[in-house]
Write a structure and sequence with these properties.
- The protein has 235 residues and is of the alpha+beta class.
- Helices cover 49% and strands 13% of the residues.
- It is built from 9 helices and 6 strands; from the N terminus they run ααβαβαααββαββαα.
- The protein has helices at residues 2-20, 34-48, 69-75, 93-100, 110-114, 116-123, 151-154, 180-198, 202-231; strands spanning 54-58, 86-87, 126-128, 136-138, 155-162, 167-175.
- It has a two-stranded antiparallel sheet. A two-stranded antiparallel sheet has the order 3-4. A two-stranded antiparallel sheet has the order 5-6.
- A hairpin with a 4-residue loop joins strand 5 (155-162) and strand 6 (167-175).
- The longest helix has 30 residues, at 202-231.
- The termini are far apart.
Length: 235
C-alpha cells in the first residue's frame, strides 16, 4: 500500500511539473459574435479541413451562426455535395499517417477536450525547430507532429532563452502576411468556431435552461399561494 501511494504521488507530481512551464493565454472568444463565428468557419474549412475531419458536424449546422444554405454551398463546401453531409476530408488515413507519423485527429469535440485557452495558445505557439521532421515545434505541445499550416500568415517564430527570467520566449524572426495583432484575432475567430462546433446546441440549451428556471420560479409562487389558500382555515 505504501508503494502504491508513493507511485500515485510521484505520478501527480510529474504531471504538475510537466504542465508547470506551459502558460496558457486567455482566448478572447465570444460565442454570441456571429461575425466572428462565420470568419472562424471560413478559416476552419480553408486551413484545417484539408487534414482534419469533423465527423460530428454537419454543414447545415452553420445556419445556426447566421449563414444561409446558399452561402454554405458557395463558400464553404469543397468536399461534399449535400449541405446535410458531415465535414469529411478526402485525404486517406493511411497517407496521413505516412506523411505526419500519425493520423490527424477529428476536431469535432477538440475544444471540449482541450479547452479554448489551450487551442488559442497552441495555434500561436509554433516555432522553427530544425530537429523536428516538419521543421516546426510548439511550446504548448512539445515534439508535435503537425506542421505549422498558418506560418505564412503568422510568420516564423524562434524560441530564445530569456536569461533574466531563466525561461524561454517566442520571438518573431520573419513576419508573415498578418501583423501579430491581426493573427491573434484570426486565431481567436478560429477557436471561437471550434468551441461552437464542439457544442453547437449549447446556446439553445442555455436559453431553454433559463426558460425552465423562470417557469419553475413562477410555479413556486403559484404553489405557495395555493398552499396558503388551502391551509388558511386550518388551525
Amino acid at each position: 500500500m505504501k508503494k502504491f501511494v508513493l507511485v500515485i504521488g510521484l505520478l501527480f507530481a510529474s504531471l504538475a511539473l510537466a504542465n508547470e512551464h506551459v502558460k496558457l493565454d486567455r482566448a478572447p472568444i465570444d460565442p454570441n459574435n456571429q461575425a466572428s463565428l462565420q470568419r472562424g468557419a471560413k478559416y476552419f474549412v480553408n486551413y484545417c479541413l484539408n487534414c482534419h475531419s469533423a465527423m460530428s458536424m454537419r454543414y447545415n449546422r452553420l445556419m445556426d451562426i447566421g449563414l444561409t444554405e446558399a452561402q454554405i454551398k458557395s463558400n464553404l463546401m469543397y468536399a461534399s455535395e449535400k449541405v446535410g453531409d458531415t465535414m469529411t476530408v478526402a485525404m486517406p488515413k493511411a497517407d496521413a499517417k505516412l506523411w505526419f507519423g500519425a493520423t490527424p485527429p477529428d476536431l469535432s469535440v477538440e475544444a471540449r477536450a482541450r479547452g479554448a485557452d489551450w487551442l488559442y495558445s497552441y495555434l500561436r505557439g509554433f516555432y522553427r525547430d530544425s530537429s523536428r521532421p516538419t521543421g516546426w515545434n510548439n511550446v504548448v505541445f512539445d515534439k508535435v507532429g503537425m506542421p505549422h499550416v498558418l506560418w505564412q500568415l503568422q510568420g516564423q517564430q524562434v524560441l530564445k532563452e530569456d536569461e533574466e527570467h531563466h525561461s524561454h520566449q517566442l520571438v518573431l524572426d520573419k513576419p508573415g502576411t498578418l501583423s501579430p495583432a491581426q493573427y491573434d484575432l484570426m486565431v481567436a475567430d478560429l477557436v471561437n468556431y471550434l468551441v461552437f462546433m464542439a457544442e453547437p446546441y449549447k446556446q439553445q440549451d442555455q436559453r431553454l435552461g433559463i426558460l425552465v428556471l423562470l417557469f419553475l420560479g413562477l410555479l413556486l409562487v403559484l404553489t405557495y399561494a395555493l398552499k396558503k389558500e388551502f391551509w388558511k382555515d386550518i388551525h
